[in-house]
Specification:
Blueprint: E1 2-5, E2 8-16, H1 18-21, H2 28-38, E3 45-49, E4 55-59, H3 68-73, E5 77-85, E6 90-98
Length: 115
C-alpha cells in the first residue's frame, strides 16, 4: 500500500508465509533491502542493511531526469524498517520518503520497530 501525505510517501508491505522465504538465520532487513532495490516503486536510492539493525541508503548516480519525482516532491530522505511477526507468520515492512526529520513523528507507535 502507498500512502501520500503532503507530497511525502509511506509504503507499507505485509508479506505472508515468512517461514517459506526466510530461512532460519537469515536477516529480514537484508532481504527487505534487496526487495526494495529490485522494486520499481522506489528508485531513488540504493538500500543496504547495516550491522546495527538499520538500513543505510545512498543516492544512485546523479541523473536529473531520473530523480525528477524526488525533485518535484522535494523529498530526499528515506527511512526503512521491518519486523517478523511470528504469531501471524508474516513480515511487516515499511519505507518512508520524507523531507524533514520531524516528519518521522507522524509514524504510528505500532510501526516504530527500531525506535
Amino acid at each position: 500500500m502507498i500512502f501520500r501525505w503532503h507530497l511525502r510517501r509511506f509504503y507499507l508491505w505485509h508479506f505472508s508465509c515468512v517461514d517459506r522465504f526466510l530461512n532460519p538465520g537469515d536477516d529480514p532487513l537484508t532481504w527487505f533491502a534487496s526487495f526494495v532495490n529490485d522494486s520499481y516503486v522506489m528508485r531513488g536510492g540504493k538500500f543496504v542493511a547495516d550491522a546495527d539493525g538499520t538500513v543505510r541508503w545512498a543516492r544512485r548516480r546523479r541523473h536529473l531526469i531520473g530523480h525528477r519525482d524526488e525533485i518535484a516532491r522535494r523529498c530526499f530522505r528515506y527511512e526503512l524498517a521491518c519486523r517478523v511477526d511470528r504469531q501471524n507468520n508474516r513480515l511487516v515492512a515499511w519505507a518512508f520518503n520524507y523531507r524533514d526529520p520531524t516528519d518521522l513523528d507522524a509514524l504510528p507507535d505500532d510501526l516504530r520497530f527500531d525506535r
